[in-house]
TrEMBL record:
SUPFAM superfamilies: Periplasmic binding protein-like II
Coiled coil residues, start to end: none
Organism expressing this protein natively: Paractinoplanes rhizophilus
Domain of life: Bacteria
Name of this protein: Extracellular solute-binding protein
Pfam families the record matches: SBP_bac_1
Amino acid sequence: MRFKTGLSATIPVVLALGLAACGGDDSDGGGTAAKPTNCTNKIVHEDAKRVLVWAWYPNMAKVVDNFNNQNTDVQVCWTNAGQGQPEYAKFQTAISAKKGAPDVVMLEADQLVGFEIQDALVDLAPYGANDIKKNFSAGAWKDVSQGDKVFAAPIDGGPMALIYRTDIFAKYGIKTPPKTWDEYAADAKKVKDAGGPVFGDFGSNVPAVTTALMIQKGARPFVYDLADKQNITIKLDDQATKDVLEYWGNLSKQGLVGKEDQFTTDYIAGMVGGKYATYVSAAWAPGYLTGAGVGAGKDKGKFAVAPLPQWDVTNPVSVNWGGSAFAVTSQASDKAAAAKVALGLYADDASLTDGWKTQTIFPLNQGVLKSDELLNAKIDFFNGQTVNKDIYVPAENAYQGAVYSPFTVYYYAQLQAQIAKINNGRTTGTQAATDLHNQIVQYAKTQGFTVH
């Protein structure tokens, strides 16, 4: 699940190599050695080992109850320490202080490496993680692994697709959704020339989307292996990155797409009112949009979804936006118990079924993804379209995983600033790619990395 807000410049940035030794261990007392008592949920078995969990899934109360009712030797003590970046900031503070971290923490996949490099997360391979590897696609497993080490249990993902307004497409004579980004641009111009709304949005506050589209085009922004902490390859001034930023910059300049920050009240009002013909998003989007009031009034039944347009239809690439996992922190007082929770929480059939039916998550567990119930489900938001079978499950199974940097927060903040400059006409996509590359390389060097 992607925590859907913009980045904040006030979020502390991990000083990666400088903090590499700040993780706790069994000898430092841990952050949660005392039995946690400040639990949001009910403890079913009072004498059992308690594991403190930070997580923000909307249905966590039900998920935790499911786990606690099914286990007599370990109980989850759950609290919501913040959604996304606020939680990460608290976790970073606990890492630096060597105390105060939970036993298990919910993290988005693109944030894992930044904590792994600080020795803040436990390798789950010795605790049976590979026993569940068969339950996930290769891409989902790659996102939580480093070589033979497994640093989290994947829960949900965000295979990307193209949500579109069927009423706008029909009004302006677009008979089929665009299959390529060239077709997308042509359709955008057709609608605009006919006096229609903008076709999409190039919001600066969703840099993860732009990064995914760069990867789809063939870019490899980062090459990094935790086994070689000192070295990193950064390539943000390559032709693929330049092409993607130029593409969206040109659409923005021509007024074919909007420039608004996403997930704001105005943006949601625009979605409801037909201001945007399409929404480039992920499998969790229907749940988010429904929760925000989209598709419930005059716009009900007017949304559909199609596969994400491709840069090259002969070489289709599936990409991901968001997705979260449960990791065991190095401050956990009982790592075996914490690992049982990380690997077993939100892994039972009841929790997974509730997650996808309420559109809280898009599950990564293949047992659920292959079920007839999920595959044949007719999604009301998409007017009965069988989107799991036709769009999202194939996209997830085709996803090959990504390589993230140890400083995702800083990278996203700089990309966000460059997109804002593009939208304001103060730079070109090509120049933005070059400047972004230089900024990130310089930052990596100041953190002690050798950059290739």
